[in-house]
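lol forgot to send this yesterday, sorry. struct tokens for the thing we talked abt
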């Protein structure tokens, strides 16, 4: 990026502000997308970032398509474009609907808010084996998601007891002869909602045993490699899963494990309130997104 490109990037970041309402991953994604948008603006000779117009945004999306980016990646860039357009006072230069950019395929046949009751079990098993072969910590994180219905972010918060300067407890496994409860606190949970997850099934016990064995063998509190930042570890995990085919398009993404876990809890007689609390939500109505009605 040349001198003028850096100027445009400075303008874009200033317009976007501190993004206080965004999580760390969303901020990182916005900044990455902004670099791409700014590079395109620089190549088209824009003098200032607020000179963007509807022709520019349409051309940018077409360029992403030509480069072969996936529908979900294009959707991410559109989200950043909308935020930037709003902040420069030109919200109408980006269409509100992704369909207006020919992005119907992002959700075709895949309602993300409906319960998932099936997945490609062969692909799921092969992906697990491949993750363990690539790096043991990737396999362990996969097992934690699969058995406990953890989110991808939460599956990396595997410190036995780690308290930061803000007194956030990341991911604690109760000490004692038997590990009966996992306590997931603020730093690893969506919205900072703490919750206790009692170990109920043999599958969950085995996943925790593998985690503890790994920690004891390596002498590490975290399963993440020490030479990786949390964001780098998260991206490595996400990209590895994507390359192995664990995607929504294949009806086999990581989030589907949360659907299966919620359905299992309801089948074993747990109340909707208890089940949704274990999933890390506060509103019992959210269960409708995980468990089919009736």
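and heres what i got for the seq, position by position
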């Amino acid at each position: 990026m040349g001198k003028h490109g850096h100027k445009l990037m400075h303008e874009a970041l200033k317009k976007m502000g501190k993004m206080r309402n965004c999580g760390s991953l969303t901020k990182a994604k916005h900044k990455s997308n902004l670099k791409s948008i700014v590079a395109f603006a620089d190549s088209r000779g824009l003098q200032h970032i607020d000179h963007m117009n509807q022709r520019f945004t349409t051309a940018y999306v077409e360029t992403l398509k030509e480069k072969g980016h996936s529908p979900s990646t294009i959707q991410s860039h559109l989200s950043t474009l909308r935020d930037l357009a709003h902040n420069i006072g030109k919200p109408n230069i980006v269409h509100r609907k992704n369909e207006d950019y020919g992005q119907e395929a992002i959700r075709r046949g895949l309602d993300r808010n409906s319960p998932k009751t099936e997945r490609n079990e062969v692909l799921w098993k092969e992906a697990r084996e491949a993750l363990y072969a690539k790096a043991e910590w990737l396999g362990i994180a996969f097992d934690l998601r699969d058995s406990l219905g953890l989110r991808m972010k939460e599956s990396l918060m595997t410190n036995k007891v780690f308290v930061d300067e803000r007194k956030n407890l990341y991911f604690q496994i109760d000490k004692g002869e038997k590990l009966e409860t996992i306590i997931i606190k603020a730093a690893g949970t969506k919205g900072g909602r703490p919750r206790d997850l009692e170990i109920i099934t043999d599958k969950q016990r085995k996943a925790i045993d593998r985690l503890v064995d790994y920690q004891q063998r390596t002498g590490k509190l975290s399963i993440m490699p020490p030479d990786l930042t949390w964001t780098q570890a998260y991206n490595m995990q996400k990209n590895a899963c994507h390359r192995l085919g664990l995607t929504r398009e294949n009806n086999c993404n990581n989030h589907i494990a949360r659907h299966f876990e919620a359905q299992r809890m309801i089948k074993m007689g747990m109340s909707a309130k208890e089940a949704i609390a274990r999933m890390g939500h506060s509103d019992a109505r959210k269960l409708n997104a995980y468990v089919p009605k009736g």
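The mean pLDDT is 81. anyway ping me if u want another try
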